[in-house]
Amino acid sequence: GRRYGKTTAAYREAEFYAAQPNKKIWLVGLSYKKSRLMFREVFKNMVKGNKKDIVAASEKEQYIRFAWGSTVEGMSADNPSSLLGEGLDLVIIDEAARMPRKIWDMYLSP
Predict the structure, then answer these.
(1) What ranges do the domains of the chain cover?
(2) What is the Cα–Cα distance from 83 to 108, expressed in whole angstroms?
(3) How many CA atoms lie within 13 A of 100 on its CB side?
(4) Nearest by Cα to 18 from 85, 110, 89
(5) pTM
(6) According to the model, what pLDDT value does residue 62 have?
(7) What is the pLDDT of residues 56-107, one digit of tens each?
(8) CA distance readout (Å), 92 to 39, 42, 49, 50, 52
(9) How far, in Å, CA of 39 to CA of 59, rounded?
(10) If you average pLDDT over residues 25-49, what whole number do you get?
(11) Nearby residues of 107 by Cβ (< 8 Å), 6 or more positions away
């Protein structure tokens, strides 16, 4: 339903996966702007207070790399070809119902 906290729950799931070794997590927005907004929340929660666990991170470039090999990246469906060729452990899609089905079928589904 609307305003139920689905996005917050998704962030928590991303945090759970990122705490495990060698996981690759993508946060996918319909647009770069949406992707950036979603990633900003995750970045604030994961990076603040965890600097010693982080190898590299950039809010602007939308990535976090942890010492144990896990990565979190913000991605945009604006350029679907950028979503090709990755083995992912978790994909969180913001507003998935609005994403064209072919993006899931051709670029994101396992």
Answers:
(1) 6-108
(2) 7
(3) 10
(4) 89
(5) 0.87
(6) 96
(7) 999 999 999 999 999 999 999 988 888 886 789 999 988 778 888 888 787 7
(8) 11, 12, 24, 22, 26
(9) 7
(10) 89
(11) 80, 81, 83, 84
The letter for the amino acid at 22 is N
Instruction: Read off the DSSP letter of residue 96.
Output: G
Element (H, E) at 44: helix 32-47
The DSSP secondary-structure symbol of 78 reads T
Cβ within 8 Å of residue 75, ≥6 positions away = 26, 27, 28, 29, 35, 62, 82, 83
The stretch 23-45 carries a mean pLDDT of 90
What phi and psi values does residue 59 have, to the nearest 5 degrees? -70, -40
Going by C-alpha positions, the residue among 104, 92, 110, 109 that lies closest to residue 14 is 92
- For the domain spanning 6-108, the CATH number is 3.40.50.300
Angle at 105 between CA 104 and CA 108, to 5 degrees: 50
Q: Are strands 24-29 and 63-66 parallel, antiparallel or unpaired?
A: unpaired
